[in-house]
Amino acid sequence: MIKFAHVIVFSTFLLTWVLGSDVGLTPVQMIEGHGYPSETHYIKTEDGYILTYYRIPHGIVDDSTSPRPTVLLQHGFISSAADYVNMGPGRSLGYILADAGYDVWLGNARGNTFSRNHTIWSPDFNKNLFFDFSWHEIGYYDYPAAIDYILNLKGDDSLYYVGHSQGTTSFLVLASTRPEYNKKIKLATLLAPAGHMGNPPNAAVKEYCMLIDEYAATWAASLIFEIPNTEAARIWGSTTCVLPVNYADCAAVYYTTMGIDITEVEPEMLPVIATNAPADAAIKELVHYGQIIKTGNFAKFDYGMMTNLMVYGSMTPPLYDLSKITAPVAFYYATNDGLLSIEDVKQTISEVSNVAGEYLVPLDAFNHYDFLFAKDVVELLYNEVVATIKKF
Ligand SMILES: *[C@@H]1O[C@H](CO)[C@@H](O)[C@H](O)[C@H]1NC(C)=O
């Protein structure tokens, strides 16, 4: 049976390669196009956002008689559920987990291309209200709503969590500010764990963030609340990058901030990535990242002294207390990650109570995006990730 499934997965992969790739497709079109089942769920948060979540309830062959354990995957900043499917079966983590016997759920954070809905506000006509959130609210409101929705639907009391980049930041927010959720997490898998971020290896990132207050003031004065030009970037990426003559430029644009070594990038996959990325997001997410990179403190949003006093009762924003995180957490990080130094990752690990494991990807060239898109990601990372999940 397992061998049969493998043959089907492999032939689907080959067929797609021959007939054309997933350029131009939404995540659901990709999933169904590869012969996997998909469901779309709308999940409402306490503060009124209506999120679009996708589900791959089982692998290409449904040969399981017992209920499948749930894995919830959350994407990074200006990204989407596409991160976990756009490299195709046998390669992207969504498919790998579905084929390994899991019930896979893919989140879309509030405000991204697929989660632009709210019970009262419009992302187009009330941008100032709709986009008034950072990754704090994504962890504090979106993730609890999703976890409760899924556990309720299945009658379960816990699930596996996987996050990449901002999907790890918001997990740290959730598990430290709503500690009652820790018992609902069997194991949290953090890929490129972005908690402490004060020492990014890419010096240009730090320089940019040293001016974040000035940028934030300019955006606020210009009434810019949403990260602009993402659609133009998607169109540019999914058309220009199809042409081999542009591969080098495209790779440079997509990867340089993420790590200088791009040996794990397959340029012909860039148009697929660019089809759904960058997805939309709030300026406040960027500003909040800028603040924690500038100050080196993994802290709540800094509104300025007076507003901080009103919101938090202190002049500076409170730090996230990672010692409140009691769920088992496995950390996966890389040497060539332009955003996350090993020093910062180690600091985050040292503050979390229940460390289930730490794993340095055994390739120096591995960068921040390679956690999703590297050509050798299965051998270098996902085999280890899946084996660790199976132990919990
Ligand atoms: C937003 O959500 C509401 C309630 O679920 C739904 O009726 C409406 O069609 C959605 N709007 C969009 C643009 O998806």
TrEMBL record:
KW Signal (keyword) present: yes
Pfam families: Abhydro_lipase (PF04083)
One BP term from GO: lipid catabolic process
Gene3D superfamilies the record matches: alpha/beta hydrolase
Signal peptide: 1-20
Residue ranges annotated for the Partial AB-hydrolase lipase domain, each copy included: 29-87
MF-aspect GO terms: hydrolase activity, acting on ester bonds
Active site: 165, 337, 368
Keywords noted in UniProt: Glycoprotein, Hydrolase, Lipid degradation, Lipid metabolism, Signal
InterPro entries documented for this protein: AB_hydrolase_fold, AB_hydrolase_lipase, Lipase_euk
Family the UniProt entry places it in: Belongs to the AB hydrolase superfamily. Lipase family.
PANTHER family listed in its UniProt record: LYSOSOMAL ACID LIPASE-RELATED
Protein name: Lipase
Species: Zophobas morio
